[in-house]
Fold this sequence. Notes:
Layout: E1 3-12, H1 18-35, E2 38-44, E3 47-55, H2 56-68, E4 72-83, E5 94-97, H3 100-105, H4 122-141
Parallel strand pairs: 2-5
Antiparallel strand pairs: 1-3, 1-4, 2-3
The structure holds flavin mononucleotide.
Flavin mononucleotide binds next to helix 1, strand 3 and helix 2.
Amino acid sequence: MPLIxxxxxxxxxxxxxxxxxxxxxxxxxxxxEVNQITGMLLYREGCFIQVLEGGTTQVQELxxxxxxxxxxxxxxxxxxxxxxxxxxxxxCMGSHLASDSDLLTHPSFVDxxxxxxxxxxxxxxxxxxxxxxxAFANKLAL
Length: 142
Ligand SMILES: Cc1cc2nc3c(=O)[nH]c(=O)nc-3n(C[C@H](O)[C@H](O)[C@H](O)COP(=O)(O)O)c2cc1C
């Protein structure tokens, strides 16, 4: 099955607390297991960043559901790439609320969460986002 990886950024329509994120993640884990989607969802101050990986059709269909989901808006796809193997094989959907100290550890991430994020440079930022998302996945796995 051809695999793709997609990273997007979106804005939450309401500010979420950790417990409000939980319902998103409950149906997500179940659906993603069925659809063999893996990845990581980060949230900070009204901003989501998510990496999705799986079969092309499954990722595209999920992206359509997320775009139609009233809990987020202004979806900005940073990019997609074909994969031979997954970067997040063990995460049905890891999730993390990025703290101030996380941003200090991953300064390149400050940019993604700022209002001045430049979508024209999104393709340049794909690689930086992926590095930070992987670092969070490694931290959560400890
Ligand atoms: C930021 C964000 C990320 C989401 N990520 C996923 C996901 O990885 N997998 C998933 O199935 N649903 C995800 N959802 C939920 C979908 O938009 C949609 O509500 C869900 O897939 C519908 O599932 P259901 O028909 O089982 O209720 C996400 C929603 C938001 C707002």
